[in-house]
Amino acid sequence: MLTNLYVRNLALIDEAEVPFGQGLHILTGETGAGKSLLIDSISMALGQKVSRGAARDAGKPCVAELTFSVESPSLAEKLAAIGAAPEDGQLIITRKLQDGRSTCRLNGETCTAAKVREVASLLLDIHGQHEHQSLLYPDRQLDILDAYGREAIAPLTARTADAWEHWRTVCRDLEACMTDDSQREREMAFLQYEIREIEEAALIPGEDEELEQAYRRMANGKKIAEVLQSVHRLTGYDSGAGDAIGQASRELQTVTEYDGQLDELASALADADNLLNDFNRELSDYLDGFTFSDEEFYAAEQRLDVLNRMKSRYGNSIEEILRYQENQREKLHDLEHLTERREELKKEKEKAESVLAEASRELSEQRKRCASELSEKIAASLRELNFLAAEFSIQFTQTAAYGKNGTDSIEFLISVNPGEPLRELRRVASGGELSRIMLAIKTLLSDKDETETLIFDEIDTGISGRTAQAVSEKLSRIARSRQVICITHLAQIAAMADHHYEITKAAVSDGHTRTSIHELSEGESVCELARILGGAEITDTVMESAREMKRLAEEKKRQL
Fold first, then answer.
1. Is the same domain home to 95 and 142?
2. Three-state secondary structure along 115-179?
3. 560 inside domain
4. Same domain as 299, residue 220
5. Angle at alpha carbon of residue 177, lines to 175 and 180, rounded to 5°
6. pLDDT tens-digit profile of 321-337?
7. CA torsion angle for 449, 451, 457, 461 (degrees, to 10)?
8. Looking at residue 420, what DSSP letter applies?
9. 197 CB-near residues (< 8 Å, 6+ apart)
């Protein structure tokens, strides 16, 4: 349940905080006062798109924050499953807009707008001013039916979608196999050429690295030999460093008997002499073996050319080239056995289509069972909303092709007057009728899930009189088990409020206009009803009518 809304610097709202409780919350105000700003504030907090000029003061952040109380254990589990576990039974959603950037938080932790929308779908349902128009589209009508029968329909929908994906994959594979023989021969010849070229190269994993190292050594052989000979001479024992260190070691040994502290230095110098001697000997051995022929150099060069040519065509390494070769062999095998593969895929397609057809049939049968039940309940609900002779039905037709949703296409049919035949909803329903039908559907869907808060923005479009009274009673009845927030222009609906809020717009000292929201006392609520009833001039008679309307509304609520 939504317990609090805080808004700062949004459109005409400088700063506002609105507490909410249980029951029916009604928002009223003069046309243009900014009633829909409340819905806009909630939508903003829930991650919906906001216009660039939404901020009242462009230099300050625009903030919307919603606080929810989560009492249902199963709802708390669902929220926890998507990483939004309530803390002490509370969930706070905050969104801040500043300098074109948007920041969303759940209980203080930064998250994405998509995550907020996912969480919001479990917490509340917003019915905007024009949403009832979506009832005219068959796809939306199918979504409503599936939502109503979710428990029974969802598993079948998932099964049908999986069967459709498999069938579509098999169809694509079969289509790929439907090539003419001449094209097939060309592809096979090309694959054979590539496979043979790689085979003739006789590639060995790792040989390219070893060969490149050997080639670099041979290509720079003259320079290497000159440097090594110079190093051998400089470190050797023929007027080199080795000769000098050897002589120094021998001379130091002649005086160690006079001072015991010199033994350690003499030992270190002797070690250095031995190390240099070993180095010089190993260097000499390397020089003796550092020989190669022009033939060896040419062979390495030629082999590297082959390897680089293979890399330019088939992969960046020998391992990649060999994997490519294996893939081409598999393609060649498939082409060589294409006829057999076609037959296999044809059989697989028949089997997949049979599974899809059965899944679609079972899904359709379940939908029809749910449709019969939903039709009866919508008709009954419409009669409560002053469609006294309403009849409602859902017509099924089969689509020309399979889809992930099966083969069902549906159409809502309605008759609102005695003796009239059932006709397509899109052909007969007016704006006011559509809003009542959507109200009936929202009521039925709310009973199917745990959404605790329903928000209606001007559900009273196109209605008045007795119909408005019926809608108000319907809203009040829903509010017995759900929190309902509703914007209205009608006194009949406003009179049923458990919590009545007035939205006003006024000029402030800086020359700007500001919208404010505050909850009305019972007396103030009667005055607001009188304003709605009487317009510009509120007479004693209008005030008395407002009091009577409020009194009758309270009596009606006790009877519901």
1. yes
2. HHHHHHHHHEEEECCCHHHHHHCHHHHHHHHHHHCHHHHHHHHHHHHHHHHHHHHHHHHHHHHCC
3. no
4. yes
5. 105
6. 999 999 999 888 888 87
7. 20
8. P
9. 310
pLDDT(526) > 70: yes
- Greatest mean pLDDT among 125-129, 138-142, 259-263, 334-338 lies in 138-142
> What single-letter DSSP state applies at residue 422?
P
Listed range (70-74, 165-169, 233-237, 518-522) with the worst mean pLDDT: 233-237
Section 253-270 average pLDDT:
78
Tell me, yes or no, whether 41 and 95 share the same domain.
yes
Structural domain boundaries, residue 104: 2-149+448-519
Average confidence (pLDDT) over 94-120: 87
Query: How much is the pTM?
Result: 0.63
Residue 442, token pair as written in the block: 């929202």
Long-range contacts, stretch 223-231, CB < 8 angstroms, 24+ apart:
224/290, 225/287, 225/290, 228/283, 228/286, 228/287, 228/290, 229/287, 231/283
130 and 201 part of one domain: no
How many Cβ atoms are within 10 Å of 449's Cβ, its own excluded?
13
Q: How many domains does the chain have?
A: 2
Please indicate, yes or no, whether residues 237 and 323 belong to a single structural domain of this protein. yes
The whole-number pLDDT of residue 292 equals: 67
* Angle at CA of residue 266, ends 263 and 267, nearest 5°: 85
- Any idea what DSSP says for residue 390? -
